[in-house]
Design a protein that fits this description.
50% of the residues lie in helices and 10% in strands. It is built from 19 helices and twelve strands. The strands form five sheets. The chain has a three-stranded parallel beta sheet. It starts with 5 loop residues before the first strand and ends with a helix. The chain binds one RNA strand through α4, β7, α5, α6 and β12.
Length: 478
Amino acid sequence: MSKPVITRFAPSPTGFLHIGGARTALFNWVFARKMGGKMLLRIEDTDRERSTEAAVAAILDGMSWLGLDWDSAPISQFARADRHAEIALQLLESGNAYKCYCTPQELTEMRERARAEGRPPRYDGRWRDRDASEAPEGVKPVVRIKAPQSGDIVVKDRVQGDVVFKAENLDDFIILRSDGTPTYMHAVVVDDHDMGVTHIIRGDDHLTNAARQIVIYRAMGWDVPEMAHIPLIHGPDGAKLSKRHGAMGVEAYRQMGYLPEALRNYLARLGWAHGDDEIFSTDQMVEWFSLEALNKGASRFDFVKLDNLNGHYIRSADPVRLYDVMVETASETGRNSDYAGLVSNKDTVLAAIPELQPRAKTVLELIDLAQFIYAERPLPIEEKAAQLLNQESVAHLAALTSAFSALDGWSVESLDGTVRAYAETVGLKLGKVAQPLRAALTGRTISPGIFEVMVLIGREESLARLSDVVGVGAGAHS
RNA sequence: GCGCCCUUCGUCUAGCGGUCAGGACGCCGCCCUCUCACGGCGGUAACACGGGUUCGAUUCCCGUAGGGCGCGCCA
């Protein structure tokens, strides 16, 4: 009988929740759910200089938006400093660690000399066996772990397989600083152990750290958790993800108009696959997930594919929810006139959304497509639309305006019939009159079906917008 | 420099000794059509290179090349 699974996500609060962290959190979350276990959250805030409360809030918000919840209250690593020191002391007493009185300058020299002589820049262990009586005056020591000097340390990794490190390549690294605070390497091990973490899932930039951490586990006689080091995400050019690429916080993705379920689906497909399945729900993800199906190679972030997936989820989303997201997004991104237009034309926008859905890849595009509804008269006419409104086409619009005015009903069918009949009468293809109509009614060359547009904005507004165009045209040529 | 990891269409990937190397995005063409989308159909395009092992390698092993990560009193 195996222990219940406990995973953890351990961000350091020095900025937002970036896309790589979001995926790490996602995999920890999915795995915990799959195994019926828990995912804990630990804030690695031991770097007091760089950690901020705002960053903690941003990370929690980002996870919530993505739909990733965690069990128990987030744990502050900084708050556990006493416990870390306690373990370091135990290691000291058991002879598995020792005090080192080297000064930072001394260490810098050591590294520089090593580099100059072509040796790896590692601590040479000069205090490993020295007696405490040799300690210099006025120097506060650090505590270093006694790493094994021979043999292999193997990281048994569920993704990477057995990774072997030779002990001679590891030095006696610091576990407690001279001010008594723990280093990351030490705090992580103590926390993961105390939290009962059974599976460590993290970026493979930690793979070499894993070997060092195993040294501490061994010295304490603790079980080493299962490990899974997942590959990193690169930018479109194969290099490290930069802000230009996508290393923004997840809230930036929200502001760009992506839906959380789309991002989850996309992120899951970066480094993980379940056969040929491309689009799947989060429940399916949980059902299908396995650590062994994770890839070992890094992948590139591709906005084009994210757009495609997002388009899919927009198409299948509930219009009422989309409306709310549109309003929220307009507000958050400072699109004030859109915000006002969306709010004061709620019913019309709601009715229009099904027409907009297949045409948008992001919520921002959705908003853009809705603008014809609340645009102020006289409509701003885009350049390409203006080209459609020449003397001839405006004359047709004038004729159509009369026909529309005489119309009894105002439906897609009646409008369609009217325009088709007119086009046939004057010997034109439908497109020849429908396009100018679109230009006059929306100010653009693209929009939902033009008869749908007319029904949406209504008879009065349609005729008014037409007269805005026809009036000018008629005035100029009569 | 040292250590570790990685390498299938442009991108994300399937593949776990024998496949016409599959899917998705993108791109191109056709259909649908009042525009743009959506949808449908078709097409383009890949096993980094060199050695082994094997009857047979995309698949297993070793090199080479390329890329990534790590080597702090940062996390």
